[in-house]
Amino acid sequence: MTNYIIQGGKPLVGEVEISGAKNAAVAIIPAALMVNGVCRIENIPQISDVTLCLRILEQLGGRVRTINRTTVEVDCSAIHSTRTPYEMARKIRASYYLIGALLSRFGQAEVAMPGGCNFGVRPIDQHVKGFTALGAKVVVDGGFINASAKSGRLQGAHIYLDVVSVGATMNIMMAATLAEGTTIIENAAKEPHIVDLANFLNSMGANIYGAGTDTIKIRGVDNLGGGTYAIIPDQIEAGTYMAAVAATGGQVLIRNIIPKHMDCITAKLVEMGVEVVEDEDTLLVRRTEPLQRTNVKTLPYPGFPTDMQPQIATVLSLAKGTSLVTESVWNNRYRYVDELKRMGALIQVDDKTAVIEGVSALTGAPVQACDLRAGAALAIAALAAQGQSTLSGVNYIERGYEDFVEKLRKIGADIQVVEVPDEEELNTNIG
Ligand SMILES: CC(=O)N[C@H]1[C@@H](OP(=O)(O)OP(=O)(O)OC[C@H]2O[C@@H](n3ccc(=O)[nH]c3=O)[C@H](O)[C@@H]2O)O[C@H](CO)[C@@H](O)[C@@H]1O
Ligand SMILES: C=C(OP(=O)(O)O)C(=O)O
User: Which of 23, 202, 276, 427 is the most buried (most CB within 10 A)?
Assistant: First the structure.
């Protein structure tokens, strides 16, 4: 098991380069399954969820060639299976995109129920509603979601989503791409990765219009050919480093970002007294004054992203006064709060609201990450805290942050990576 030992209390100073977006990459790689030809995908982040997505493609018969650190060529002309390996697919949330991709191209898919971070209930009823409207039969059997197009090929349909869902929007968009006829998705999600997936598919020959608005129109095409595409920068990774600078103080230039995607996060940091100076593809983040309280409510894009909620709550735990954070996307995304309290944070959670009484300092402690962004939030807390913290559960962080430790060290963080026997191993040895 890997732990991070963090000596806190050092302001972050320097420059950090943002990688390709996790939640775009984990959709675009499954979408490459739909392409009959070679896709060259650039700006791929080196994170474990991406590695797993690429391995799944290989298991299904795709050929994956690494060109360099951030570029792969994927050739899915010779896919020989539409059944994904159970243990691989169940590990990540994004495996649900394999349903839309396989169903679209081959008219059938067998994919394990997806995994991902545990925020309580994570239903996929809107994905199923969309596939069914497109003419698929969907059943769950033996832990697999089995979907098949009743007439061999999906048929375009008019689909209204009952909830704004990122996953359902992207999955239905993929399924409809190779369907016969036109599909309209209403009440669609508008996140940057939705636009990125549509751009990727369009660059391979799809006909998708309106991604980034709440109505997306997809005219089905007969096949997709190869091409080259570069994934957008990761909004949440950039936001995480912005939050880290806000918590520790200092000055960091965040490079390779799309400033527009950052507006929802920038606005809140500015309210807290953090200076943010925008340029073409960079943000300079500086915090020299004490942090001020504010309220934050998570919402679908362009609202404040739920994937930044733990990180911003951590920063607010160091702000002067009482702040309210309302989580309106997930019903259980405060599991990290008990760990933050070990470091001296004063936070009361009542259902979807966290009431945060700012403290003047956090103190280092042994803490454990329970999911990806919880891990990032605890790392931020440890960087800002007085003294030493030991962070366990860092495999979650590696799901979504490329070179997390190296990037932080480059801007002055004191982090050691240590290998320790995991509890199971210890118990075996004791027993
Ligand atoms: C791999 C990936 O991109 N994960 C992101 C994706 O997750 P994911 O795609 O799972 O999240 P959704 O946008 O679908 O979920 C949003 C809300 O809709 C509900 N819902 C969703 C689908 C459904 O069929 N029925 C339903 O009721 C969920 O319970 C939740 O309350 O978007 C979330 C919201 O921005 C992010 O936190 C995740 O990081
Ligand atoms: C929750 C996240 O990911 P996933 O949906 O893959 O669990 C995330 O990226 O914050």
Answer: 23
Residue 303: DSSP 8-state: S
Question: Using alpha carbons only, what angle is made at residue 332 by residues 328 and 337, rounded to the nearest 5 degrees?
Answer: 105
DSSP state at residue 163: S
CA of 125, closest atom in ligand 1: 24
CATH 3.65.10.10 given to domain 2-19+233-427: yes
pLDDT at residue 379 in the model: 98
pLDDT in tens, 301-348: 999 999 999 999 999 999 999 999 999 999 999 999 999 999 999 999
Task: Indicate where the chain has its CATH 3.65.10.10 domain(s).
Answer: 2-19+233-427, 22-230
Q: Does residue 23 have its Cβ closer than 6 Å to ligand 1? A: yes
| Dihedral in degrees, nearest 10, Cα atoms 319, 394, 87, 132 | 20
Tell me the pTM.
0.97
Start-to-end CA distance of the chain, whole Å, equals 19
The predicted-structure confidence for 81-124, as pLDDT tens digits, reads as follows 999 998 998 889 999 999 999 999 999 999 998 888 888 889 99
pLDDT at position 247 over 80: yes
- For residues 61-77, b (16+ Cβ closer than 10 Å) or e, as one string? ebebeeeeebebbbbbe
Closest atom of ligand 2 relative to the 23 alpha carbon: 9
CA distance to 211, 238, 323, per residue, from 295 (Å): 30, 21, 5
Dist CA 239 CA 171 (whole Å): 26
∠ CA(88), CA(235), CA(320), 5° rounding?
115
Q: Name the fold adopted by 22-230.
A: UDP-n-acetylglucosamine1-carboxyvinyl-transferase; Chain (3.65.10)
Catalytically active residues are 117
Structure tokens at 24: 């775009």
Q: Using a 6 Å cutoff on CB, does residue 117 contact ligand 2? A: yes
